[in-house]
Amino acid sequence: MGLTVYLGMLHAAERTLAESWRLVADGHAAEADLHHLGHLLGDRADARVARLAPLTERYGERYDDEPERLEAEGLGSLREGPLGLLRDLQDLYLLASFVAMTWDLVGQAAQATRDREALDAVAYARPQVRNQMGFLRTRLEQAAPQALAG
Amino acid sequence: MTDQDDRIRDPWGPRTPHAAGTAWPERVDQHLRDGVRAEDVQRWVRSACVLCSNGCGLDIGVIDDEIVGVRGRADDRVNRGRLGPKGLYGWKATDRDRLTKPLLRDDDGHLVEVDHDTAMRAVVERSRSLLERRGGLSHGFYTSGQLMAEEYYTLGVIGKAGLGTPHMDGNTRLCTATAAASMKESFGADGQPGSYDDIEHCDALFLFGHNVAETQTVLWARMLDRLDGPDPPALVCVDPRRTEVARRATVHLPVRPGTNVALVNGLTRALIHRGAVDHDWVRAHTIGHDELAAVVEPYDPARVGEICGIDPADLQAAADLFADARAPLSTVLQGFYQSHQATAAAVGVNNLHLLRGMIGRPGAGVLQMNGQPTAQNNRECGADGDLPGFRNWDNEAHVDELAELWDVDPITIPHWSPPTHAMQLFRYAEQGSINFLWIAGTNPAVSMPDLGRIRKILSSEDVFVVVSDAYPTETTALADVVFPAALWGERTGTFTNADRTVHLSEQAVDPPGEARSDLDLWLDYARRMDFRTRSGRPLPWWRTPEEAFTEWVRASRGRPCDQSALTYELLRHHSGIQWPVTEEAPTGTARLYTDAVFTTDTDRCETYGHDLLTGATVTREQHRALRADGRALLKAVEHTPPPGSPDTDFPLRLITGRTVQHFHTRTKTGRVPELERSAPRAWVELSADDAGRIGVVAGDAVRVSSPRGCIEAPVRITEVRPGTVFVPFHYGEQAANELTLTAWDPVSKQPQLKLTGVRVDPVTTPAGTSTAQQEAAWD
Q1: How far apart are CA B727 and CA B708, in angstroms?
Q2: Which of B365, B370, B47 has the alpha carbon at shortest distance from B200?
Q3: In a domain, B292, yes or no
Q4: Which chain A residues have a beta carbon less than 8 Å from that of B423?
Q5: Which residue of B has its CA nearest to A31?
Q6: Per-residue model confidence (pLDDT) at position B764
Q7: How far apart are CA A55 and CA A53, in angstroms?
Q8: Which positions are tagged coiled coil (chain B) (predicted)?
């Protein structure tokens, strides 16, 4: 069942997202809003991983042996300065959108399998992930003029 | 007339109790210079007080071009003649320690006196060269809550249409940004729903983080006159300190700092579970009820009691009082605004009223308070993080209206994101992308969080700092150019208080030396910069305060803060008029939303809204899809643990706040003998429990430390909540903001000044005696 592959992808991507938020929170701590919010959003990603656990237990999770073309990699290390911040946040946005789409597709599968527990988990996760994408977009749009044209 | 010394011994003055629904009686307070009698005064000049957000109407007494005293205006709707200690004595600061000559930093780094032309030429030269090399984004303006509507509007036009910079904010960000944000989120636009008159009509008063007895003494006098009357309202006080308000309260909820959202969620849940929701009204006039109910459901009294550190029975009692009230009035201030999840907590108060349909009727209303006398003007005129007339930066049609008003290309008006908030503005200066910073009438070197960092920014070689102020301050000391500014009473203009009351304050005397109004300074700057409209007219084209006012009210036409029928002439005949003032409402408007139609139409609203947890903006399309169409928005989020939480190294929680004698950083009140004598220096309030554990008694000196700095001051033992430390923030030499952390609310961007983890240690001299014992005068 392909769902096991998607559960594996989602689990890995959410863990990466949590780590990346914390990396940004501490690495860009001089941006005070990111420092506090980054830790909060990292914790939220952890909480979503916890909501995945019963599903991965029931379905199992499997890592695809297809070649990875676009991988949801974490930030690994941080860039510096206003431009670096912009690029780090944009990377986070890519990662968050990967996570969001993966939840969406797991949700589609949950509907098809009439899996209420999975639907509940998706209902819990989707608004959160959408919100953090909204936040990143807001923050990126606010920072871009000064970083790129200031 | 009441005894002149009353207001130091008794800040609220004699009682004039009265029954519900009857007019608040007059009581005229007056204070004149020693030896001057009322009949000696040559001229009484119409004005209002600028030393808190109440805006009490008064007349300034003048003899031979000198201010000799003040008298409250009996016909003024705000104070009916009363004045508080700051209003009564504050005018005495106008002739002390004034800056009278412009200063320019010379090549050796010293500030030296120069003439106005030399100082302004240096400013314009730097501004021009930066504008050519780096564009408008290199410029930032940080203003005050003390300037007048004419000044804010003029600066807004210069910044947005002349320079084209979004970097403009006021210190109102520190005091009132959350009031505006919460009203925008709930009602679609800024604008105080309620009126002070509601105090006469309410049967329950809820004060959320609002120590009104010290912050707005005349407003508290108004409440006391109801509390001492024949049918007093119930009073609920949310405050970690046992304040005067708490002492009079029916229910006092001494919440743990940083837990306000848990509290309002608990109150909301209790209302829902009691069946107190007016479902017909909610269905007709709000959206979001079911989502709200789901968010607050986990906040049962036991859980809220645990999070907030209060007795669950008290929470229930407070909720019952709200549920049973026929006309509940709520006020909200810094205990919510400068704390964790500020906007969400303030919105929670709006929700309580919306759920019961208790808004827009006499007695039933919300007062999201302001900290400063002219904060409302900074918000409505667009010199802070807003566009003039409560226009929406994200609405192209609103930006086009401004471009039309100003006769400029819409593309010159920055509107790609909200105007830059104060904390971000200083961050850009820190990073070196803002190189020109003009600070008017405010003292960020004492009032901003984490002062070490702020001083570093202001002293940086990379930032050209222009400061206008009436007095030498901690901030003027760091400036490159200092302009001496005209004070209240030395210039003409209008300002608007916390309940939308506009007052005209006329010039009573000339400013000293070369001091000028900020309006004149900015107009002079703009002329020399040669900003022009599309048709080649100088921008701004006005010259006098009255011309600026006429332009401002023209810009307000059709918007929620419409003042298009307001004139200086009208304000000379009515002491205080509440906007909107239009052809349909020529004498003003007591309450907003009397028809329960809110400003949430997509094309009309000031904001499309935000996610309260992260501050993510709601897009135009998302807002349109909500189909709010005049219905208020019910919004809620879960409580999250506050940042800077106490830990083993810093086990106590610092809250900062105000004292009745002083305003802001004491630049004025510190120069008034009566006020300064009664509160000359900072102190540290501890509970008896904490003092015992630390091993100090009242009067002992203690050191309060946080990861960012430390201050020393003597101890007062008070009934503050155990685990909580209180320090007044007014004092530059023992500045509470040496300790505070840099963090802000995600929606209002208001700094969180009441959430710092600190430790407190005794200070002893080598001889083993405390410094306080050696200085007996301290207590």
Answers
A1: 16
A2: B365
A3: yes
A4: 32
A5: B427
A6: 76
A7: 5
A8: none
